[in-house]
Input
Amino acid sequence: MISTLISHSRKVMNCLRHLDGLAPLLMRLYLAPVMMQAGWMKLANFESTVNWFGNPDWGLGLPFPELMVILAGGAELIGGLLLIPGLAVRWFSVPLMVTMLVAALTVHWQNGWLAIADASSWLANDRVHASTEQLQRGREILRTHGNFSWLTQNGNFVILNNGVEFAATYFIMFLTLFYTGAGRYVSLDYWIKYHYYKEKSLHE
Output
């Protein structure tokens, strides 16, 4: 019985392995617009981003802020563009992982895990719990002085906690792409590698 199940599962997995490029493809297409937007915003607002990167009082206090903005924005914009056709994905996964790690440690770490403040979550910290009263007070003001039903017709008001949740998730996704590659059959990386080894075998 068990041996039969193992045999059938192996046959199923052998059939499905030709679709193993689907997961990397979906990750690439998910990450591409996120990275492109982040990179574009940094570079399009270069001066203000440099000020934020470099200022130790109200910014990140990073050294060489101009260079940091160029490296981070360039990696996100160019890397995001190349994620779409799946070109040099492993190479660009490295600087993008570094960018996510720097963002997590310098921007988000002090805020805890949650990106959106949710006091009901077991991951909520003191900062998130404190935001409950602020959110309630804000809703009361809007109900009293604004058209609350119109203001909330597309979604509820929330408080942005800006925790490490998204940066950590993107880091893990890039780490996965670094090990899996861009995906079989669905990336330029695969076909470049395929033709390289095909040409190499013909000349041996």
Remarks:
- The longest helix spans residues 22-44.
